[in-house]
Amino acid sequence: MEKIDLPYDSSDLITNAINFATKKHYGQLRKGTTIHYITHPIDVMQILQNEGCSEIVIAAGVLHDVLEDTNTTHEELLKYFGEDIFNLVAAESEDKSKTWKERKQATINSLDNATQNIKMICFADKLSNLRSMATDLKSVDEKLWDRFKAPKEEIEWYYRGVFSKMNDLSHTKIYKEYILLLENVFGKRAVNKTGDELFDKIEKSRG
Q1: Any catalytic annotation for residue 51?
Q2: 51, 55, 68, 84: which is the annotated catalytic residue?
Q3: Most CB contacts within 10 A, which of 85, 149, 179, 206?
Q4: Which whole number is the average pLDDT over 73-95?
């Protein structure tokens, strides 16, 4: 395996993670935009920094999509960043062999027994996405949902389902912002315990 040209003699773990993610996500854009994808991991990084998370958690936040969305191998991530970061990134990575619904349900279910660090990365990731959705709705309105692999109602089910698992993070700065963005993007609605009730309503409405 060819070694990526990064400053691994640097003591700055987060700088190394930014360089690695920037190289791996090179050429990728945010859905339906001309915005470079790396802006998303950087936003996740800043959210985690503002919450006072450790360098390991922040670095894992920067790297959270490299296993899922780039050619990064498990061996490569372990080699450069070690087991602690690898485990956090792996926990945030979806199995793309499954359907969209199966992947999202697996993420929601996994949060039942997830550590606080894993939850923080997941929460920061989803919050960053909600920020982008709220911004894009102002310019493209309901055409936003054409960018996604699932309809608006199912995306709402997913983001509310994730939120329903985050009660133990209600003390964080991002908890209230997440609530406000859920209302901004999807409208006010009671959040059920699992997200299944909302999805069942969607399925029944389809007949």
Answers
A1: no
A2: 68
A3: 85
A4: 94
Q: From the candidates 69, 84, 94, 196, give the one annotated as an active-site residue.
A: 69
124 confidence band (pLDDT: 50, 70, 90): very high
Tell me what the mean pLDDT of segment 6-28 comes to: 82
- 69 counts as catalytic: yes
Residue pair 22/38 in contact (Cβ under 8 Å)? The answer is: yes
Return d(Cα 4, Cα 106) in angstroms, integer: 32
Sequence-distant (6+) residues with CB within 8 A of 4 are: 20, 23, 76, 80
* Confidence band for 186, pLDDT divided at 50, 70 and 90: very high
| Token pair of 55 as six digits | 């360098």
* Domains of the chain, residue spans: 7-93, 95-207
The CATH superfamily holding the domain 7-93 is Hypothetical protein af1432 (1.10.3210.10)
What is the C-alpha separation between 176 and 178, in angstroms, rounded? 5
